[in-house]
Amino acid sequence: KKPLRIVGNEIHIIYMFYELYYTTYKLEDYPLLYKNEIIQFLLNLEEKLNIQFYPTYKQKLVYLLAITLQRKKQGHKINISSNHITHVIDSPFYRKIKTISHTLCGIKLTEMDQIFITVAINCCLFSYSNIKTNKKHILQHFYNKNIAHYQHIHNLISNLEYEFKITLKHDQEFVFQLLQYIRQISYKYQFVTTSVFQTSTFHKKVKNNHYVTFCKVKNIYTKWIQQYKLIPYAHEADIIAMTLQLEAMFQLTKLSPKKALLYLGDSILWKRYIQGILHHSFGNTLSIVQEEILDIQTLDIQKLNIDFIITTIPFEKIKIPVIQISPVPTKRELNDIRTFLYSELDEYPAKLF
User: Fold this and answer.
1) How far is 302 from 319, CA to CA, in rounded Å?
2) Residue 221 domain boundaries
3) Alpha-carbon distance 49 to 96, whole Å?
4) How far apart are CA 186 and CA 149, in angstroms?
5) How do residues 127-147 score in pLDDT, each as one tens digit?
6) Which UniProt keywords apply (predicted)?
7) Is 63 exposed, middle or buried (0-12, 13-18, 19+ CB in 10 A)?
8) What pTM was computed for the model?
9) How far is Cα 302 from Cα 320, in angstroms, rounded to an integer?
């Protein structure tokens, strides 16, 4: 008799074996071939792509690539939908991977193999080696809308803004985290079928606590993916992630603004200019007290009912927080102010996606 043979979508079969091996064996007990070669391959990818994988995801990739190579040697072929192929080929990662990964463990890689590796990498969590440069580059593409993928997400954010009457596109951290999240899940769902997703107790709690927000997000997101074909289904986990992020922003906007005295000494001519920069940078989270103070050393600070002082001159023996800035505030000085303004928000996670 012939042995039983598993048939179906090759990517789903690879994912099934990957889950079996990854959950059964620790990396030190790795039972497959090519461990050291694959680890070196991933190190080369990290260097070329200027990223660093989270350790657990690097281990996952070792198993995934080992199983992929083993099945490739057995004659199995990977098929990826044309929509995803177009999406992958348009990505910066693919263009770099194509130049360095002609073979792996002595096995020649086809274009489809390189596309598959790109998909697998984008399913992982990683950090950029130069986060500021890469973040700026990604946001620039988003705001310029010169990549189709980002145009779709731009539309999603516009729909959320319209429904919730809130400005989101100016919040670069929100935009960046959403871009990263959509990137990851749009690739991940190439591997994972909808049947593996289950509703958790945590999901139920979020839905109960933020039911109205959840329903609105679900409606917007479900309609959006009908145009954005790379995500096949509106998974509850993704709706929960967006609901939490929006609820965090609602909490931020409800906070009372901190009050500051802008004391400029001889730089009084810069006052209106500095006020404009502060308003542009912090909006309603910062309130400037409209007081003309000639000599702050003789003033009873407590009567002003302020939280801190922003000044262009150094102070001594002031019983209140002081942040010194330049007449043309630098990014570092503005970050000092931002840190002070949001110091009470530590209870809210910086990243909910």
Assistant:
1) 9
2) 131-253
3) 7
4) 10
5) 898 888 999 999 999 999 888
6) Transcription, Transcription regulation
7) buried
8) 0.69
9) 9
